[in-house]
Design brief:
TIM Barrel, 9 helices, FMN, globular, tRNA dihydrouridine synthase activity, alpha/beta, 195 residues
Length: 195
């Protein structure tokens, strides 16, 4: 059964497994199960605003409220795998969206775990009143937060995500100093995938 969820063809390398949850034991067990599948990185989802995830499940973007827990989670995940670990997050959640609060989140996770890679969706998540689709469009993009992180955390690798729709936008971001750029929905919406 786990092959159905974890196996992938070798030509998909490099490939990252994203996991989600709010239970340290379960996150460690999920990582342990995945360790036999040769993923190149394990990523913790701290950015999904879906009510099914951030609401009832108390994970996804809601985890940004508890950087201590995320640091502990990343430490538990890293202890159960031999590949790099990363966090995908927003720049904030609800009214906790200042740059200082984002820095506190990053600093706490880095200080408590070996995490040195963050994928930053450059808009905050609003957990009440917006659908997941609206959360990808309505809160304003604040790329300046991303570029400030590059300046303030030189030992950490940051990937920019959110609102990037064209090759020209990706190239401009790289020219501005972005370490890497993630294009998700634009690629998903433009191309058909066989899954």
């Amino acid at each position: 059964m786990q092959d159905r969820f974890l196996a992938f063809p070798a030509e998909q390398h490099p490939i990252v497994l994203q996991i989600g949850g709010s239970n340290l034991d379960n996150l460690a067990k999920a990582t342990e199960l995945a360790s036999g599948y040769a993923y190149d990185e394990i990523n913790l989802n701290c950015g999904c605003p879906s009510g099914k995830v951030a609401g009832h499940g108390c994970f996804g973007a809601r985890l940004m409220y508890d950087p201590e827990f995320v640091g502990d989670a990343m430490s538990a995940i890293a202890a159960n795998c031999d590949v790099p670990v990363s966090v995908k997050c927003r720049i904030g959640v609800d009214d906790r969206d200042s740059y200082e609060e984002l820095c506190t989140f990053v600093d706490k996770v880095v200080s408590k775990s070996p995490t040195r890679h963050f994928i930053i969706h450059a808009r905050k998540a609003l957990l009440s009143g917006l659908s997941p689709a609206e959360n990808r469009k309505v809160p304003p993009l604040k790329y300046e937060y991303y570029y400030a992180l590059l300046r303030d955390f030189p030992e950490v690798h940051f990937t920019l995500n959110g609102g990037l729709m064209t090759i020209e936008q990706v190239s401009a971001s790289i020219r501005q100093g972005a370490h890497q750029v993630m294009v998700g929905r634009a690629a998903y919406n433009k191309y058909e995938f066989p899954f």
